[in-house]
Amino acid sequence: MPGKTAPYGTWESPITAKIIMGDSVTFTDVLLDPVSLVNYRIEARPSGRCALVNTTNNKDVVSDDKWDVQTQVHDYGGAAAIVYDKTAYFSNNTDNRVYSVKEGGTPQAITPEDTKKYHRFANFAVSPQDQSRIVAILEDHANDPNGDDPQNVINTLYVINTTRPTRQPTQVKGLPGLPDFYSCPCFNTDGTKLAWLQWYFPDMPWEGSELWVADVEYSADSLTVVNPKLVSGEKLNISVAYPVWADAVTLIFTNDSSGFINPWKYSTITGKAQAILSTPIDEDFAPPAWPLGYSPYAVVRDTTLGLFTAFRAGANVLYYIDYGAEQPQALEVESPFASVAAVRANKPGQPQFIFQSEQSAEVGGIIQCVLSGGSGSVAPTPTYTVLKTEGESLTDKFPPGIVSLPIAETFHISPEIPLYALLYKPVNPDYSGSSIPGEKPPCIINVHGGPTSLCVPTLDWVKQYYTSRGWAWLDVNYGGSSGYGREYIALLATQWGIKDVSDCFFAAQSLANDIDTARVTIRGASSGGYTSLAAISFGPNNTFYKASTSYSGVADLALLAKLTHKFELKYMNKLLGGSYEEIPKVYDEDRSPIFNAKFITAPLLLISGALDEVVPPEQSAKIKKAVTDAGHIADSIVFPDEGHHINSAKNKITALEGERTWYEKYVIKPKA
């Protein structure tokens, strides 16, 4: 029986903000105790706090709501906990102290009280030789108490002595050079060696970084690295990341010297680092290291086998690699997953793994993958078991056929320069189309943050919220996005606010047969919010968009450069072509939406958190005033209890409903 018809953008949908944002939880990490082999997860709860949960028995390791397993290192966090030999060690976001706890017990502080919350900890590595010693990143804000001089924030590697919880951690001794950042400290399997990453301004870690390995000497109060050796990486030119010890002498990591992030290995016996694959694959085997603790692959203890992820057309594929073979091959493993992360090997001697996954048509979760068979150039056969679903499967609450599946689009700006996007068409089983003959659907262009990040083709109920109402949705992975190689990322160098803006317009115009190009909106968060503001202000086609929403978007580049945090302190220099002192006109008149607010005619909605330290909320307030002073339409939603990201369920509901109402008022009703 044919469905109903109604103008696009006005369809009735059972997908409500309350249902999709309500009581669901998301997983931020999957952890494995390497001794007991019990796996755990970190859950982001609707209240905004994070909890450490035993995935085997589904019990919180610590049940009291006062514990929040998060860290603010680099302001993006990650790597807030580790579990080793049935003891969990975690950073508590409410007081910035580190605690240890056995499951069901009471957490015990292992770092001193920090009333001013100057010290932030993350990336914990427990020594197999002396479990009372934990190496971690310490980010010290004591020399920047007001947050206005991030150059004075100190990041380095420290040793936490769990037997002396009232004493300040001590710095790891013998570290080479004076880098600005550290990450990924990890002991080899017998605790005699330590590996870590370090990098210097002006690099972000995916632009240039160094991997070091050193012997370890233990003393009463500290730990010293001796005979440090630079394994791989180069300032400005080569990024290395994600080191994992396969055994006492073999280190696996990634290196992008081929132009794509590929797996490498290093032997402490030969002192040689080399690519695992004799012929590099033109795919990125990992994303840029924005948060700490990301794990894009895992190696099986007591073997030379590993399961690796890589990006293809924005989605993850799986490779099985015997890195100890004479000629290692990347054998693609059949997979239904669009995204795979937090990969851990959980059975020594056997190719068995757990990981966090997401699909395009179903909610994500924690998966166990067992590989069997396969030899030579024949890939093994996977058996996947769902260990835990992320929240509840909302697809059961909605009628079959309501999910719009992503369509990977590749456009060509020129024969040599591609542009990637993901199109979601309007889908609702109750509707067969529009009641207006020849009508095409309005389209929401979504701009990811970063800007060195990407949109992936996973099930996102916010997208379905709109497509089920008759909207088209377009994720644009503009030049500068990750997942397509180093050269594609470099397209945004000096071009932020230009390349991203022009690519969004080009993508929309290229889909004129599928969408109504007279009814296109643009939205984004953080740097994506900047792009959405740039597109409607100084962008050459600023009147193309009929509305815009900016979540924590940058309006004033000079102000951002002045107030930004240490991790991204020099990032803008590369994105814009210099510092504010060197090119003030670029920061102000040329690329700041606040200086071009008079050109904004698209109704603008600004959504932000009052506690945002990455993009201070003053940015939204300034551009709102500038737009309204110019006689145009702007409004704002400010959440007093949120930071750079909207975390609580009630605030997410308010934001989503407010955004949809905005589009219906200014885009749909004038047309309908």
Structure description:
By secondary structure, the chain is of the alpha+beta class. Among the domains are: 4-17 and 398-671, 3-Layer(aba) Sandwich (Rossmann fold), CATH 3.40.50; 295-391. Helix content is 14%, strand content 34%. The radius of gyration is 25 Å and the shape is globular. The two termini are 26 Å apart. The model has no long low-confidence stretch (mean pLDDT 95).
Provide keyphrases for this structure:
672 residues; alpha+beta; Rossmann fold; 4-stranded antiparallel beta sheet; 10 helices; 38 strands; globular
Task: Please render the helix and strand layout as text.
Blueprint: E1 4-5, H1 17-21, E2 26-32, E3 39-44, E4 50-54, E5 59-60, E6 81-84, E7 87-91, E8 98-102, E9 108-109, E10 119-126, E11 133-140, E12 154-161, E13 170-171, E14 181-187, E15 193-199, E16 210-218, E17 223-233, E18 240-245, E19 250-255, E20 262-267, E21 272-275, E22 297-299, E23 305-312, E24 315-322, E25 330-333, E26 339-345, E27 352-358, E28 365-372, E29 381-389, E30 407-414, E31 417-424, E32 431-433, E33 443-447, H2 461-467, E34 472-477, H3 486-490, H4 499-510, E35 520-525, H5 527-536, E36 545-551, H6 557-563, H7 571-576, H8 584-590, E37 604-609, H9 618-629, E38 634-639, H10 649-671
Parallel strand pairs: 1-32, 33-34, 33-35, 35-36, 36-37, 37-38
Antiparallel strand pairs: 2-3, 3-4, 4-5, 6-7, 7-8, 8-9, 10-11, 11-12, 12-13, 14-15, 15-16, 16-17, 18-19, 19-20, 20-21, 22-23, 23-24, 24-25, 26-27, 27-28, 28-29, 30-31, 31-34
Helix pairs in contact: 4-5
Structure in a nutshell:
The protein has 672 residues and is of the alpha+beta class. It contains ten helices and 38 strands. The mean pLDDT is 95.
